[in-house]
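Appendix B, Record 12. Input sequence as logged:
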Amino acid sequence: MGYRTAKAFKEVKKIVSSEPILKLPDFRREIVLFTDASNKSLGACTTHEYTGVKHPVMYASKKLLPREQSYSMGERGIGNCVAVNKFHRYLYGKHFILESDHRPLEYLHASHSRNPRIMRRSLSLQPYRYTVRDIKGSDNVIADYLGRPTASNQLA
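Logged structural output:
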């Protein structure tokens, strides 16, 4: 493990083991899904807000297959739709916010791409009610870390 990776791992361990602690899902509250893609993996985290603090509900990550690693950054970012399917039982039938530092997600449901991978991702999101919010990469810390190859959780 490199110095930066070790430092990031220690920081995430500190964050995950201190306030705000993982909470059980509360379906009366708005769900925010943070997603991020790196060159080798995807990361995601669902949260609820309690008294102005976002509390994580569930974390997940997925290592990309070698063929997926060769996709363009746009296709990898849109691959974060996999997280929506992973958290299906929490998101289906309820409006949620999808926050990512990957700007093309905002246009996914309105695009008419000729790329079959992008079209499949777009179609897989049609049953869900969501709003995409673009956030700064510095505000997407947990999903960014989970999207690193060193993260151990795996999206099914």
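Helices lie at 3-16, 66-69, 73-78, 81-86, 88-91, 116-124, 141-146.
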